[in-house]
UniProtKB/TrEMBL annotation:
PANTHER family: FC RECEPTOR-LIKE PROTEIN 3 (PTHR11481:SF127), IMMUNOGLOBULIN FC RECEPTOR (PTHR11481). It comes from the Eukaryota. It comes from Xenopus laevis (African clawed frog). GO terms for cellular component: external side of plasma membrane. Keywords: Disulfide bond, Membrane, Signal, Transmembrane, Transmembrane helix. Signal peptide: none annotated. Gene3D superfamilies: Immunoglobulins. This is Fc receptor-like protein 2.
Length: 563
């Protein structure tokens, strides 16, 4: 017996049976080298038949057969000293074989010859050949270094037995034990742009599509050399090119080229708050649906490589949020003034960015306008010269992002005219009043808003005395039935008040009143004279009447009366 399995070339085999055994001659071809050589083998009447070629994955069937025409008993098969099994027919199915199946097999069986059974055995060495060699993994045809972003090709090489050249092989690739390319007919795994996460220990596995033969390569460590990030840039996309509160804003953060998984962070410097997204793309878009008024500030885009942790920052980017003006509210300071005072007009608005164009109105007339770079500069000072400057004031504002002027509601300015030029009428500084006569004094002012009147009599307040009658809201002081105690000096004090600490007051001229008594003696003389005149008139009348009676007495019959 030969130690290795050989293929017998049938056209060169001659078998001769001599003395109970057979002689086989022919040419043998080595399946590994293909070389042929002569052989001669003598076998007994029992032969263990095996296939000419046995490769990994083959289904191996053995036959322990007696020479044709001879009866045989139960057959037993052994591999070395190990019993494999027995078979009445002498046929054995070993199943799918591998390299460990190789070894020396012996068949034991009794063969009948001339009515006598003789115990026979037949041995053969079975050498299982590799269907294909253990795969070897290589990268980029042996290239030592692979740069990030470069092309990477991993090849799984093996050698298929030429006697099974038509066997179809399938290849699968793993990185760190995870499948990166499933079974296919390609023995290559390609990465167009290698990234840091492509680094790792790679293995490949080969299997025969028609059988259960699988072989795995030894692991190969492949490390991708990291490239540095560069040129992080920022671009804002907003309506009209301005960042306007309440409007949509898009921020585009980009790098020169993609380098695997990147973490993009859009960060506000003052608060250190960031909006973060991850992507393998070379740019990332951040969207603010409605910009807040306080969104402005300095920002940076920070790009961090997930594989290495290395970061690169863009230049600082300053964002100024333009705010549309809300409805302004006019403020007056102070809200109540006197003629001659000054009042500041300014506005308050819950929203609105500067610079702002402003204009102030009194009723429908403009009183001042301008352009303010700061909110506190949008004011105007008015000097109140007349009581006519009372009434509603308003303001109108507009900035560069407002489509039209924003008009405030009207605010009323209260203007008071201080009292001035108080006078008492009658205008004489000295008045003489007869006792029991009546007299009224009137206090008036040339101007003054809502004046209050106070009468002073001999340096005391007359309003609180019961000696006088105060009428017409204090303007009129009357004396009914003047008496001697009404004599004295009178004046009035007129005031009006803007606030608790601003009171205007004027004092009138002084009027001195004297009371003269009535003369009862003169009155008596007058009455006496009048009485005497009356008596005199009565006497004259009586005398005349009597004289007339003496001269013109009536006639009587014959008698004459003599006095």
């Amino acid at each position: 017996m030969m130690e290795s399995l050989v293929r017998v070339t049938d056209s060169f085999v001659n078998t001769v049976v001599q003395f109970g055994s057979k002689l086989t001659k022919g040419l043998l071809e080595d399946p590994e080298t293909g070389h042929k050589k002569e052989f001669t083998e003598t076998q007994s009447y029992l032969a263990l038949k095996v296939p000419p070629f046995v490769f990994e994955g083959d289904i191996l069937e053995l036959s322990c057969a007696a020479y044709p025409g001879y009866s045989a008993g139960e057959a037993e098969l052994h591999k070395g000293d190990q019993f494999i099994g027995s078979s009445h027919s002498g046929n054995f199915n070993i199943g799918s074989v591998n390299m460990k199946t190789s070894g020396s097999y012996t068949c034991y069986r009794s063969v009948k010859h001339h009515l006598i059974y003789y115990g026979k055995k037949s041995s053969v060495y079975i050498s299982v050949k590799e269907l294909f060699s253990k795969p070897i993994i290589s990268v980029n045809s042996g290239q030592i270094q692979i740069n990030e972003g470069g092309h990477m090709t991993i090849t799984c090489d093996t050698k298929l037995s030429p006697h099974r050249a038509t066997t179809e092989l399938q290849f699968v690739f793993y990185r760190n034990g995870h499948n990166v390319q499933g079974f296919s007919l390609s023995n290559q795994y390609g990465v167009p742009s290698a990234q840091m996460e492509d680094s790792g220990n790679y293995t490949c596995e080969i299997k025969a599509q028609s059988g259960g033969v699988k072989k795995e390569s030894d692991p190969k460590s492949i490390q991708i050399k990291a490239q540095k990030l560069s040129d992080v840039s920022v671009r804002l996309e907003s309506a009209g090119g301005q960042v306007i509160a309440g409007e949509r804003l898009e921020i585009l953060c980009s790098v020169e080229k993609g380098m695997g998984l990147l973490r993009y962070s859009w960060c506000k410097q003052s608060s250190l708050s960031c909006d973060t997204k991850e992507s393998s793309a070379s740019e990332q878009r951040f969207v603010v649906e409605s910009v807040a008024e306080d969104y402005g500030g300095e920002y940076q885009c920070i790009v961090t490589r997930a594989a290495t942790g290395n970061s690169m920052r863009s230049h600082k980017f300053s964002i100024s949020v333009r705010v549309k003006l809300g409805k302004p509210e006019l403020k007056l300071s102070p809200g109540k003034v006197a003629v001659g005072d000054s009042v500041d007009l300014f506005y308050e608005s819950k929203s609105g960015s500067v610079p702002v164009d402003y204009e102030f109105y009194h009723r429908n007339d403009s009183v001042g306008k301008g352009k303010a770079e700061k909110k506190e500069d949008a004011k105007y000072q008015v000097t109140v010269t007349s009581i006519t400057m009372t009434g509603p004031y308003s303001c109108a504002l507009q900035n560069e992002v407002s489509s039209k002027m924003q008009l405030s509601e009207g605010v009323v300015l209260s203007v008071m005219e201080p009292v001035a030029d108080a006078r008492i009428t009658p205008g004489e500084d000295e008045l003489s009043v007869k006792m029991e006569n009546n007299l009224c004094l009137t206090c008036s002012v040339e101007k003054g808003t809502s004046p209050s009147f106070l009468w002073i009599y001999n340096e005391t307040i007359a309003n609180k005395s019961g000696l006088f009658q105060i009428q017409e809201s204090g303007k009129l002081l009357c004396i009914e039935s003047a008496q001697l105690h009404h004599a004295g000096t009178y004046r009035c004090q007129v005031s009006n008040q803007l606030s608790s600490n601003r009171i205007f007051s004027v004092t009138s001229n002084n009027v001195t009143i004297s009371i003269s008594e009535k003369s009862y003696q003169v009155m008596g003389i007058g009455i006496t004279v009048a009485f005497l005149v009356l008596l005199f008139v009565t006497a004259i009348v009586t005398f005349k009447c009597r004289s007339n009676n003496c001269c013109h007495s009536p006639k009587s019959s014959g008698n004459t009366t003599l006095f």
